[in-house]
Design a protein that fits this description.
flat, single chain
Length: about 270
């Protein structure tokens, strides 16, 4: 890791001060040698920073290049081209001509659970994630089973979004919000509901809903004095019942939508 300019400069000064062959080096704090030392320190810092950046790039390249890693499966999933066949070149299946217009998988999360590699995939439609069609999923399954690392147990998760229900109390500033939670200055805007939706929509694909982060997002909404999450439940889209959520909920499908938001607004008076 690159040292700071100050650390490098001090090491140069210490080295000069400890050199008996330079008895006059410490007689002035603004001597020319200190200016030179500063310039050298900056040059060394830039050099070390470039090596750090190079190391990061090489490590990422190495990990992406090794077949069978989680990052490799992620890259391979995004490289899937719907409607194209694979060609066997150099001991591996590849697309003869890469075509980004056919790469329909735009959201992907890969994890390993109990010896199984789970690949969650979605495409984008109308600006939101959507599952692949039955035919698209069949094509993707054929593709990933050809390029996969031999002996790997794969599970493809191509689901409609999980569903979340939230029930909460919001103590609000009556000078800013109406009793229904809308802005006094614009009753078409509901800051709390917008904050809840924005947080859920902004969770990284394959991520986790977190109670604390949800509360923080609501707390920052206009007019909110104190948000109180009283009950949260969630389920996979095809599940028959909801499960109560305490602190965290991992998206089964990789993403989620808010099915219902119930808010009891209480004026702070």
């Amino acid at each position: 890791m690159a040292r700071t300019i100050s650390e490098i400069y001090e090491s140069i000064v210490t080295g000069v001060n400890s050199d008996p062959n330079l008895p006059d080096a410490t007689t002035s704090m603004v001597g020319k040698w200190r200016i030179i030392a500063g310039i050298i320190a900056i040059a060394i810092y830039l050099h070390e920073s470039l090596w750090d950046a190079f190391k990061v790039d090489m490590e990422a390249f190495a990990e992406d290049s090794i077949p069978g890693t989680i990052r490799w499966y992620h890259a391979q999933s995004l490289a899937f081209q719907y409607g194209d066949d694979l060609t066997y070149i150099g001991l591996m299946f590849v697309y003869a001509v890469p075509d980004v217009t056919k790469q329909i998988v735009t959201r992907c999360a890969v994890s390993e659970v109990g010896g199984q590699v789970r690949i969650k995939i979605s495409k984008m439609y109308g600006g939101v994630p959507q599952p692949l069609t039955i035919d698209e999923e069949k094509a993707f399954s054929t593709y990933i089973n050809l390029v996969k690392f031999a002996g790997t147990n794969l599970a493809i998760i191509n689901y409609y979004p999980d569903q979340i229900n939230i029930i909460m109390d919001v103590i609000y500033n009556a000078m800013l919000l109406n009793p229904d939670g809308s802005l006094i200055t614009d009753n078409s805007v509901f800051p709390v509901e917008d904050a809840i939706n924005a947080y859920v929509a902004g969770i990284i694909y394959g991520g986790v809903w977190n109670r604390t982060k949800q509360i923080d997002a609501i707390q920052n909404a206009v007019g909110v004095v104190d948000p109180i999450l009283t009950y949260v439940e969630a389920k996979a889209n095809n599940a028959s019942i909801y499960d109560e959520v305490d602190q965290n909920y991992t998206f089964i499908a990789g993403y989620a939508i808010l099915n219902d938001i119930t808010i009891n607004y209480i004026a702070n008076v």
